[in-house]
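> example.struct
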């Protein structure tokens, strides 16, 4: 019987507090401004870097030749941001959802947080859920690291496991669509102006509670297969 693996994105799935995510985005934009002092629209450049290169740091180094080895420290090693993250992780809403995710680990699921954010960020989220939750994230060298949606990042997962992958990014899910034993699930709670689009090639869910229902149904389906 295949190992049941639940793979969860962090930002936009487990962390959905708009102010917190805007806080991270603001730090990235200020990083762009620090590295490109003559840039008049760092917010727009930051968006373009994500779209073209998948990551702010990789985009700056690839397109502008900027040394971005300090990106993770500059963005995430910030007292105000850490405090903000702690406030969200300790909130009643997150703790209730964390309890649901913890139940998955108790029911035979291997739960992994799959993110392009560093361990300094992902590790805190994982610890706030359960010590039985794993983390898959890039190392400090973002130029050589495998990042979503690159297929190499997904191939780090065990090939013989059955992976249910939940992400709010369709580009990340598209890679999983064509990989053996990967089953993409689109997360969209419609809070971020993403519209009501639902892909016809994978299920759509809008909450952790819906995720629990989906996982339970998938569990039943796999147990019968």
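> example.seq
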């Amino acid at each position: 019987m295949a190992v049941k693996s639940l793979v969860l994105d962090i930002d936009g799935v487990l962390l959905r507090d708009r102010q917190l995510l805007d806080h991270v985005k603001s730090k990235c934009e200020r990083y762009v401004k620090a590295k490109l002092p003559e840039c008049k629209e760092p917010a727009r450049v930051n968006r373009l870097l994500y779209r073209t290169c998948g990551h702010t740091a990789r985009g700056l180094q690839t397109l502008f030749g900027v040394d971005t080895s300090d990106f993770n420290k500059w963005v995430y090693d910030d007292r105000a941001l850490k405090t903000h993250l702690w406030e969200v992780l300790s909130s009643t809403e997150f703790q209730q959802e964390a309890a649901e995710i913890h139940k998955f680990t108790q029911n035979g699921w291997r739960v992994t947080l799959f993110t392009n954010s560093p361990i300094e960020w992902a590790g805190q989220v994982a610890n706030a859920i359960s010590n039985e939750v794993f983390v898959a994230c890039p190392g400090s060298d973002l130029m050589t690291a495998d990042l979503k949606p690159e297929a190499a990042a997904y191939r780090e997962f065990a090939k013989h496991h059955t992976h249910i992958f939940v992400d709010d990014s369709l580009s990340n899910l598209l890679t999983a669509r064509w990989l053996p034993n990967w089953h993409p699930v689109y997360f969209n709670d419609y809070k971020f102006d993403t519209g009501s689009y639902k892909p016809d090639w994978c299920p759509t869910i809008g909450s952790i509670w819906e995720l629990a229902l989906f996982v339970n149904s998938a569990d039943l389906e796999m147990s019968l297969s």
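> remarks
Strands lie at 4-8, 110-114, 134-136, 162-167, 182-187, 204-205.
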